[in-house]
Amino acid sequence: MTKQSIFGRISTLVKANINSILDSAEDPQKMIDQLVRDYTNNIADAESAIAETIGNLRLLERDHQEDVQAAAEWGNKALAASRKADDLRANGSTADADKFDNLAKVALQRQISAENEAKTAEPQIASQTEIVDKLKSGLNTMKDKLGQLKTKRNELVARSKVAEAQTKVQDAVSSISVLDPTSELGRFEDKIRRQEAIAQGKAEIAADSIDAQFESLDDLGELTEVDARLAELKAGAAKPQEALEG
């Protein structure tokens, strides 16, 4: 039952769809680490079970070989006893000949028994050999899957680090966005704009003051010209009066 349980686990693990498991996992890296541990443990269990199965197969094969050898040896002994009986019978020793014929029969019985044991073991050996071949193939497939898992894990770790770095960069860019009026740069820009507006206001005030001064100068010039003309009028009016008096 233990072997059968382990064999079932091998089949289940070999058929597992790794990608679908990873897609459904909240943390693929942790899931892969767990899968690597599970696969490693199950491979160790499978290797132990396969080693035991191979050991049993080798015992069967050894017993079968011993039965085959025993059958051949008993066959040789039966042949030797039979020939001895024929020689004795030819020489007129019928009693001794019968004795060796009986020994030949005993040897033949043991030969038949060894051959039967060998034949009985052959189907078991064939079955165990087929099982061992399948288990070795399944174990190799599991080891390939384990290699794929480890490769997938390394790939995910690398991708995770890249994604984390990209996230940090995006967060940094967002935090210093000059388009954000609530950011530090936005407030600093507002302050500079106010300072520029104040400077512009002062410049306009200064310009207005200078224009007023020039306007006052223009007014003064107009007044001076008016006075000059008035003086000319007065002078011109006085000249005709003087001519009449003369």
TrEMBL record:
It holds the Pfam family PspA_IM30. InterPro entries: PspA_VIPP1. Belongs to the PspA/Vipp/IM30 family. This is PspA/IM30 family protein.
